[in-house]
Structures are given as structure tokens and as C-alpha cells.
Design brief:
Layout (H helix, E strand, L loop, with lengths): L2 H46 L7 H11 L4 E6 L5 E5 L11 H6 L13 E9 L2 E8 L1 H32 L1 H18 L14 H58 L4 H33 L7 E3 H15 L5 E4 L5 E3 L2 H18 L6 E7 L3 E8 L33 H11 L3 E6 L5 E8 L11
Helix pairs in contact: 1-2, 1-4, 5-6, 6-7, 7-10, 8-9, 9-10
Amino acid sequence: MRLSTRVSLLLASLTLLVAVGVGWFAVAASTKGAYATLDSGINSVVNSGRGHPVAALNDALYVLQQEDYDFALDVVDEGGSVTQINASTVPLQRSPTLSDVHASLSSVRTSPDLPGFRYRSLDIGGGSYLVVAGSTQSITEANRSLEERVALVALAAAIVMAVAGRFVTRREIRSIGGLIDFAEQVAKGEEPPAPAQFSASTDLQRLERSLLAMVAALSRVIDIERRTSETMQRFIGDASHELRTPLTVIKGYSVLLQEGKLSQEQQQRALDRIAREVERIDRLVGDLLFLAKVREAPQRAGEEVDLTELIGRALDELALEQPPRPIERVMGEHHFVVGRRDLLERLVDNAVTNIVRYTDDDARVRVTTEASAQWITLTIEDGGPGLPVEAYGQSPQRFERFEGSRDRAAGGSGLGMSIMSDIAVALGGTMGRSVSDLGGLRLRFQLPRVTSQVPENEG
């Protein structure tokens, strides 16, 4: 059974129950009021003759005529004989008995002996009793008619409510149907268009938005998983290729050493080459593990690091290592960034190591730090050969090497740029590379600034 049919039937059933319940109370109240009116008339006739038995019959007849009551008046003597004084429109089917008379002296009563009547008796002296009886037939007929009208009204209300409920919920039902179709298509792996916005219901609109957000999130997760899998396949291929070369060299020299045909000098050169290749493998594996650690989880922490002090110390060491190199420092005092000191030290160390490894000893170096409301910008430039033109507009890639001096022979693992970029991203910043006016490479890092260090005129 469709949801719309269930909703309509539910509304119709509830409306029918409510209407019948209200109607029942209305009929009961009407019946009670009608009986109270009938009893009041009977009591008024009886009370008119109370206290003066001789004139009780005349007084009862007078009130009966004055108020136009449709009551039967019977006189029952002490022997049980019944004399009818006034007949009602609905005649008594049986005559009242002495037991009926005695039972109704204090209040209006009903009796199986007088079906369809309510009655009360009055002692009029001499052993005789006046019995006043009123028919309940009109009340019964009125109740039956009222019950029929209540049933018709309840049925009509139920039908109207079912139709109205179907009309009112039609948009919501269409929206639910659209969401079901959308979910079924998503479950089949298809890419359906977003469901149409039919509903004016706030709850259904929230459901639609939540479903769309969930599907979008799942799509992003699937896309990330796909790209991660592709990256992992490329990474495994690149790593295998990078490891194959030093392993091949080690294997070749090991075979030569085992054959024992090399001179003492040749053996020493072979051992030195094997040691260099082992160091290279160790460096490569260490960089791979570090890169995996950086990318494994967000590294942003609440530690405040003085970037000016950290880069200054690295430049001091560079100046001691290569005295001929001119180093220009354009740095503010105590620029604090949010991050981890070990990662920032690795970032600066990689940048300085690249300068030492890939530029001449007398090539210029310029380091600049700038502060804005939210960022500290660190720029490191050198006067070396730089990168190929096409490399400046690309994101750093793993095992990325270039022609010229920046090649494998310089001893790099090919992961330096990738490590620096990943560290910057992990700390909530960015890294860019461009051509420096010194002639070489410009590395530009944006790192989140410690907000408590922002002067009021910068905020």
C-alpha cells in the first residue's frame, strides 16, 4: 500500500473516530436534557396537587391543560382498579399496578410494566392514587434521527479529511518519492541529478539537504580513495624504480668483489661506492617514512614557534659552512607561527640543504619574512641555476628531479620539494615556487600566525 493511501486512511479513521465520539457525547447530552424536561413536566403536574388531596385531580388537569402536556392521567384505587382520566397521544400499553404506584411516590420512575413511559404517582386520599405518565417515544425517535445525522456528518468529515489530507500531503509524498528514487540510483552507482524541491515542509527540506550532503560527502570520499589508490600505485612504482638503481649497483659491485679479480685499489673504490649507495637507500627510506608520517594525519598543534629565531639559526650555520656566500636577511623580530617545531626545522633544513646542494658556494641567498593579520610569509631565494621554466607552475611531485645541477648525482632523494610542500600544508599553510630576481629559485611559504602576537593596528 502506498504511503499516500496510508496517510489518507489514517486521517479518515482518526476523523471518523473523533466525529463519532463527539456525536455520541452530543446525543447523550441531548437525551439527558430531553428526559430532564419530561421529568420536570411530570413533577410539575404532581406537585400542583400535593398538599390538598381533595382538589389534587382538578389541579393536575388544570396544569396539564395550561402547559399543554401530553401526559396520561390514571387513578388507581386501593383495590388496584384503574380509571383513566386523560389519555396521551401515545396510549399506555398496560395499566399501572399498585406496586408501580408505591415505587413512584417519591420520584419519577420507569418500569417494565409501563414500557416506553416515565411516570410518578400522588396520594389523593381515600386510598386512591393519581398516576402521571409521559411517553418517551418522541425522545427515542429524536435520538435515532440525531444518531443518523451524526453518522452521516462523521462519514462526510472523514471523506473530506481523506481528500484534504491527500491534497495537502501530495507535495510531501512526491518529495519522498523523489528522494527514494534518488537514493536507489545512488545505490546502483549512478550519478542522478539532485531531486526536485517539491516540499514546503521544513523537515523534508532538511532531509533533502542532509541526503544531498551525505551523497556529496560519499562522492568526495570515493574520489579521495580513488585518487589515493592511484597515487599509491604511482608511489610504489616510483619507489621501486628509485630503489632498483642503487640495489643494482650494490649487486654488481658485490659480484665483482666475490669473484676476487679486483686490485686492492679497485676493491676500495667498490666498497666506497657500495657505502654511498647504502647511504642513499637509507636517506630515501627515511624520507619516505617521514613523508608518510606527515601525510598520515593533520600536524597542526598549539605550539608557538619563533620562526625568525629558527631561520636565523639555520642561516648562521650556513654562513659558517660557506663563508664566501653572501646572505641577505630581511626579517622582522620574533614572528611566531602555529605549528610543530620539529616539522618547521625540517622544512627550513630542506630549503637550506637544497641551496647548499644545488648552488655554487658564492651564489647569493636572500631570506625575507613578512607578517599579515593571519599569516607569516617566509621567502627563501637563491642565485643558483633555478628550475626548468615549466616546473614553476606545477605542484611538487615525489622523486622530482631536473636537468642541470639538480639531479641524482647531487645526492638528493627527489623528495625534498614534496616534503616541504606537505609540511606547509600539514601546518595549515601553503608553498609556492617561482623565479627569483637573483636568478635562481624562490620558495614562498605561508604559515598561520599566532593571533595573540597580532598588534591591534594589524587586526
